[in-house]
Amino acid sequence: MALIEAKELTKQFVIDRNWLGRPKKVLTAVNRVSLTIEPGETVGLVGESGCGKSTFARTLLGLYPKTDGDVFYKGRNIGEPEIGKDYRRQVQMIFQDPYASLDPRMTVEDIISEPLRNYGLCSDDRERRQRVADLLTQVDLRPETAQRYPHEFSGGQRQRIGIARALAVDPECIFCDEPISALDVSVQVQIVNMLKRLQEDRQLSYLFIAHDLSMVHHLSRRIGVMYLGNLVELGPSDAVFHRPLHPYTQMLIASVPRPDPNYRRTTLVSGEVPSPLDVPTGCVFHPRCPYCDERCRNEVPVLRSVGEERFAACHHVKGGTD
Amino acid sequence: MNPLLEVRHLSISFHTYRGLLEAVHDVSITVHPGETVGIVGESGCGKSVTSQAVMKLLPQGAAEYRTGEILWEGRDLLPLSESEMNGLRGRDMAMIFQDPMTSLNPVLTIGAQLCEGLALYQKLSKQEQRTRAAELLKAVGLTSPEKRLDQYPHQLSGGMRQRCLIAMALSCSPKLLFADEPTTALDVTTEAQVLDVLKKMQAELGMAVVLISHNLGVIAQMCRRIYVMYAGTVVEEGTAEDIFYRPAHPYTKGLLASLPDPSDREKVLTGIPGQAPDLFHMPKGCRFYRRCPQAMKACMEAEPPREEAGPGHHYTCWLAAAERRRGDGTH
Ligand SMILES: Nc1ncnc2c1ncn2[C@@H]1O[C@H](COP(=O)(O)OP(=O)(O)OP(=O)(O)O)[C@@H](O)[C@H]1O
Ligand SMILES: Nc1ncnc2c1ncn2[C@@H]1O[C@H](COP(=O)(O)OP(=O)(O)OP(=O)(O)O)[C@@H](O)[C@H]1O
Ligand code: SF4
Ligand SMILES: [Mg+2]
Ligand SMILES: [Mg+2]
């Protein structure tokens, strides 16, 4: 059974209201996205800026109220109060900018033990100190750093503190929203390797959002590709990276700059994401798509099964059932 | 061919409240007409300072040129006055900065900003300026260039703004363009398109480009020759093939070992342990020794020598000397 399942999850933002307070403009940041996360699995989420990755993660976690759809935790709807409570403890989140997400006036110990206190997980100070020391060791920081403040740490170390805090309540899943984007490549590797090790030790699941497609490919078992709020492709990491089916995925993968001076890109890369307030008709990708035809302009393609564990939302992808 | 730009043994320090900080140490870089040279390295290693030093754009008073010379077509730039430099900047060398939003004026239309640049160096009528500006926007791949001329920066996407900056930098057909992380803030798809534009314009104008990036993929795709910087120094230089297929310096090797292998998801990334040194507490010997898997006693004691790994391929490291000593011992 899936650990977490999003079913047709939708999140809209009201951008503008008229003088009666009625919504004038509605921005659909996440449009009926269905996705599962299995126990111990890493699911990567990619797509251009503004395509709804963060909003999806936040809505899935319940940080944003959903507009429509459902979220299931181990098969049960998190709308049920006791399920929701359990879910919110079992799923934690880490962010791109660890500095902004750590309170500068709190010591590392306070930051890490806050969730412990919130969930009443440690009976006394000694036990709490010990837990914090253990957690710091797990993220390769010295336990002595517990009494220091966030500004005394480098970006990579702050990300470690954020991870230690997320681990404090011993969660089953961590949503990682661009956790390495702000870091140097050599430090990125340290964090990625640590995430992998923690996953093995603790059977953790990750929802991993990042701009760097090769790193997402490296870390994830499956990859989901979003475009303008829609999940347009989903499949095993190697398949999506090496044999992308959706024309948008093909363009995205082709764009990745390869560290090989003799690599030559063959796929045409063109166009930009349109405004989310003015979403194209039919297939949202049609204005940029080299295969676009009449049907694409008028009919919305739904995400459908197109092979072993593979899904794509495109009229021109062969295979599977309509 | 005579080099266009020759930076020799350049060292730059900043006066800060914590004392003197040496941001760039003994850096030498050569750029020939028409070639694309890459400077790659992690945050804070001195890439931007080096390029700003060449254009003499560093904050006066705070920055100090400690040693070295900067030869532009054989002429040393360091003694030049500000007005002489102004003549060179824009016309001979131009720069695209890291953050497109801060380098565009938010209250002026794109057209006004482009024409301003054009008017500075060429005698053109208002109408000619506008036509030329539209041509430039078209050349960098902007759709409906006439319309863009009347728009303000905030009305454009990040990719469009970056194209405008390229257009502005190229408006006077410079001989050398410094592009400092020109695509770092952009999505990969936009990045690919902006890099294509840069390549195309370079071929058309025959200008040299110094591309600064921390992204090894971008550097590999664009540059013929590459300088790898670490903690204010150049640790390796060579052709793109040298750097990516035959890296010699342990830092370059570590950088490459930080990149995932698309053909093998299971490959363990060895990366580089630790983090770059604080410039205020620079190690005495090799600046990389605390993170280097091959460090020896010599590395801690003295600055490593510059070694040749092949024609035009150099690196700064004690390993070769140690190798030679070992060789001597056995024979
Ligand atoms: N609180 C909000 N109010 C209104 N609109 C929002 C809000 N948060 C996000 N949006 C909009 O929703 C869309 C999706 O944004 P989101 O931040 O989820 O994208 P993303 O894929 O995470 O992008 P990035 O890669 O830049 O982080 C964007 O158009 C964004 O402007
Ligand atoms: N005006 C200044 N005053 C003091 N220190 C400075 C100044 N400008 C730069 N530095 C320092 O010089 C060093 C090199 O900075 P530089 O901006 O060249 O790095 P970079 O390689 O361009 O890094 P990034 O990839 O982050 O842009 C850094 O340690 C920086 O803090
Ligand atoms: S000089 Fe020594 S420490 Fe520096 S890179 Fe070479 S082997 Fe490593
Ligand atoms: Mg986001
Ligand atoms: Mg810089």
Describe this protein with a few key phrases:
heterodimer, A: 322 residues, alpha/beta, Rossmann fold, 8-stranded mixed β-sheet, 4-stranded antiparallel β-sheet, 11 helices, 12 strands, B: 331 residues, 36% helix, binds adenosine-5'-triphosphate, binds iron/sulfur cluster, binds magnesium ion
Q: Would you give an account of this structure?
A:
- The complex is a heterodimer of chains A (322) and B (331).
- Chain A has 322 residues and is an alpha/beta fold.
- Chain A has 11 helices and 12 strands.
- Chain A has helices at residues 53-61, 81-90, 98-101, 108-118, 125-138, 155-167, 185-202, 213-219, 237-242, 247-255, 294-298; strands at 4-17, 23-37, 42-46, 68-73, 76-77, 91-94, 173-177, 205-209, 222-227, 230-236, 304-307, 310-312.
- In chain A, the strands form 2 sheets. In chain A, strands 6-7-8-3-9-10-12-11 form an 8-stranded mixed sheet, with helices on both faces. A 4-stranded antiparallel sheet of chain A has the order 2-1-4-5.
- In chain A, a hairpin with a 2-residue loop joins β9 (222-227) and β10.
- The model of chain A has no long low-confidence stretch (mean pLDDT 92).
- Chain B is of the alpha/beta class and 331 residues long.
- Chain B has helices spanning 47-54, 82-88, 100-103, 110-121, 126-139, 145-149, 158-170, 188-205, 216-222, 240-245, 250-256, 297-301, 319-330; strands at residues 5-16, 19-31, 36-40, 63-72, 75-76, 93-96, 176-180, 208-213, 225-230, 233-239, 306-310, 313-316.
- The longest helix of chain B has 18 residues, at 188-205.
- The chains are: A alpha/beta (322), B alpha/beta (331).
- At the A-B interface, α7, α8, α9 and α10 of A face α8, α9, α10 and α11 of B.
- The complex binds adenosine-5'-triphosphate (2 copies), iron/sulfur cluster (SF4) and magnesium ion (2 copies).
- The site of one adenosine-5'-triphosphate has 16 residues of chain B, from β1, β2 and α1.
